[in-house]
User: Fold this.
Amino acid sequence: MFLSYTNRIRILVILAAALSLCTAGFLLTQKKGSDLPDLQPPHVSEDGTRIRFRQDDPGLELIKVMEVSKRGNFVNVDHPAELIKIDRGMAWIESDIPESSVGKLKESEHFDIRPLLSSNELFEGQANLNTKEVDPISRNLKVKIKFRNLGERFKVGERFLLRVKEKVNYKNIILPSISVLSVEGKNYVFLETEQREFLLKEIKLGEVDEEKSIITEGLEEGDRVVSDGAILLKGLSFGF
Assistant:
């Protein structure tokens, strides 16, 4: 049965909410899945390898990107965040971070914050950690980050991306297994090549388990890999 792009987004929003995914949470606060208007699907190249979204496409909020750093030893993970407080030239954003990343947060001196709709601006923030606020079901920790908000440029409710550098103890690149797509015996990931544009890339796998996959060929330093939302891009690329 063929599903329209609008219905695919509705289904993914509902499933993501059920799994307590952060990105879908922000989308649901703005618009319920059942209230989505008819959407024009993203532009897909004839061979299905390139996908470009419109700027206001809600599907973008279901996509999270990881940046592969030098030698694959670190990856930069972008976590969705929302501005919750403004006071005297300062602003506080809140983000849900996996409990496994708490130790990495403590080791960092600062965090990069990027407005969701701006790819070129970065702000530096400081974290306020309370390890008692771990959700018993999702095992996520609510983290508050403070940064300068001169002239109160940003308002409560605006959305951001909180970048956390996470260490990887492998010689090869390691990614969440949900970012790897298998089609007809081949393995792929999607790369973010430009803002709102994604490229299908074939890769070679090493050891794989339910949570993580080791990439032995196909990725390089600086590649920005789709970690969440790859299933949406797969449907657009392969037509299902």
User: Anything to note?
Assistant: Residues 16-34, 70-74 have pLDDT under 50 and may be disordered. Residues 125 and 155 are 16 Å apart (CA to CA). The helical segments are 5-18, 22-30, 102-107, 230-238. The chain is about 15% helix and 40% strand.
